[in-house]
Structure formats: structure tokens, C-alpha cells
Task: structure prediction
Amino acid sequence: MSEVAAIAVETAPPLVLPRPRGWRPSRRLTVLCCAVALPLLGFLAFVTMTGPMIALFIGPVDQVLVDKSARKLWLMRDGARLYEVDISLGKNPLGQKRREGDQRTPEGRYALDWRDAGTDYHRAILVSYPSKADLARGAQGGEIMIHGQKYFWRWFTKSPLTNGCIGVSNIAMDIIWSSTELGTPIEIRP
Result:
């Protein structure tokens, strides 16, 4: 390389590429995203935290009382009603359950036997039906539960939400779940 070429290479400025301009959202887009996201996050926080927060105020309960004719469930402690919720029953709720598939909810004294957090129905707590007395009179069936809703919008319809279980809203199920323990007695009245 000649001396002139070497000087030209040394003195040539380095190649400078223009910096790409970064994308920045417009103010309108930012405001729109916040206007949609913040209420959605607030709603999700409300739905997720309401049940456990109410259960903190209620505290642990020593009995669950269900009145089929009034379609109510109460969480009770020392005979006092602490929480009341509307329930849904099967298509044929009146009378004692006799067999599987009769769309009836059993009547009597039982216990909360088992919990299922992974059910399709939000959460579920198994009722200890059939008892020895139920088996002695020839009752059939089982897997009677207190459970939430698979499709939350069905709670706003008047159709039965269960086939013999005790259906409640998902928020009410969170409250029942957090306030009860396994072995808590449940009384189901006609």
C-alpha cells in the first residue's frame, strides 16, 4: 500500500450508521391501554381476593347449615349465623335423596369430608353422604358436594346449576372454603 493510501485510511472518518429511532407509543395509545387494563386488573383482584378477605372477618366456623326450602346456606359459630348465601339445587330438590340421578339433595347431618381445589367447578367440598343411616335405609349415590360454578354466567340464570349438589357462586365458595375445615358438621334441612 502506498503512503498516500495509508494516510487516507488513517484519516478517513469511521463509517457512522444512523441510529434507528425507537418506537414509542402515542399518548392516546397509553391512555387507552391504561383505561382498559386498570379496571380489568381491579376486577380480577376483586374476584380473587373478596372471598378470602371476607373469610378473614368471619373466622373459622363450627357448623354449616343448609335450608333447601329457603335455598340458603349459613356459616355458623356457636349457634350464630355469620354468613348467608343463596344456593342452587337440582331440578327435583324436594324430599330425601334415594338414588343416584334423582336430582335431589340429601337431608340430614353429615360432615365436610374432602376438598378438591382442581375441579372444573372452581372448588368443591365433599359432603359425607351416604351415612350409615342412609345406607341402612337403602340410599344410593354419592359425591354430593358444595361447589362453585363452572360457567360463572349461569349463576345469573334461573336454571338449576347442579344434579343434587349444593351450588354457590365462586366468591361464596371461596368464603366457605376459607372458613371451614375438614370434619366441620353440615346439616341439610328440608
